[in-house]
Amino acid sequence: MGDKLRKPPLVEALCELRFDPASPWDMTFPGLLYERVRAEFPDRVQLDALEIDVGNSPARVRAAPVQRKADRVQFSRPDRSAMIQIGPHLLTVNHLRPYPSWVDFRALISRILHEHERVAGFLPVRRLGLRYVNQMELPDRPRKARDLSRWINLVPQLTRGLDRPVRGMYQRYEIEHDAPVGVLIHQTGVVARDGSPALLLDLDFGSDSPGVRTLADIARWLDLAHDLIGTSFVETLNPEYYERIKKGDA
């Protein structure tokens, strides 16, 4: 995001569309879409949702057996680098490593949306989202919260008795935007990966009123959302650390 990075820290990128619950849905849609994309996404698996019935008795809550409900179907490339998920009033397109570029991911999203439209028609979009999850190795674990300023600009201000060594950190902000209208869920944290500390930067922008009426509208919205996420990525990181990431030195 932003400038071209020698070692992109991207773990996963995904585009999610949630359609109006009142729009038509048919259980044949997943199978019809699969036939159109199976050459590229041959691996098919059913993803189940869990339902727990806690009962209706006012005297006590009674745990009932967990029931599995067919929720969505996932189609994957053989190398698991990209996948599609389709369910009732839901469509997502995911890309894992190796991530090629926004141009390529955008083209993939566009192809899947066209195939979905040929199966189900253009369904009213209730929510549209674009999310990028990044993970960057840290040379050492931050001893105190203020040490995070070496890597990010959003640093927790722990004072007095709270200013002590930290084992981990997580913070979340919901930031409003108006071009396009939506909310950026901005999450940072320090996690352990293979025993080594890593910085998690999760940027999830979505709109509950995207105002899209055609596939071209969706493409324009995605371009704006991608630019917003890219700017947020750069502005989150300490400038010196960002330069190191660009050069592949981080």
Structure description:
By secondary structure, this protein is of the alpha+beta class. It folds into two domains: 21-50 and 65-123, no CATH class; 132-250, no CATH class. 24% of the residues lie in helices and 37% in strands. The protein is built from four helices and nine strands. The protein has helices at residues 29-37, 102-120, 215-236, 239-247, and strands at 10-19, 43-52, 66-76, 82-87, 90-96, 125-137, 169-178, 181-193, 196-207. Strands 2-3-4-5-1-6-9-8-7 form a nine-stranded antiparallel sheet, with helices on one face. Strand 3 and strand 4 (82-87) form a beta hairpin. Helix 1 (29-37) crosses helix 2 (102-120). 24% of the residues are buried. Mean pLDDT is 88; it is low at 51-64.
User: What is the total tally of β strands?
Assistant: 9
Number of domains: 2
Q: For the report, how would you describe the main beta sheet?
A: 9 strands, antiparallel
What's the arrangement of strands in the largest beta sheet?
A: 2-3-4-5-1-6-9-8-7
Strand content: 35-45%
**What order do the helices and strands follow?**
EHEEEEHEEEEHH
Give the integer mean of the pLDDT values: 88
Rg computed from alpha carbons, rounded to a whole number of angstroms: 21 Å
Poorly predicted parts: 51-64
Please work out how many helical segments DSSP would assign. Answer: 4
Backbone structural class: alpha+beta
What shape does the CA trace take? elongated
Cα(first) to Cα(last) distance is 16 Å
Helix percent reads 10-25%
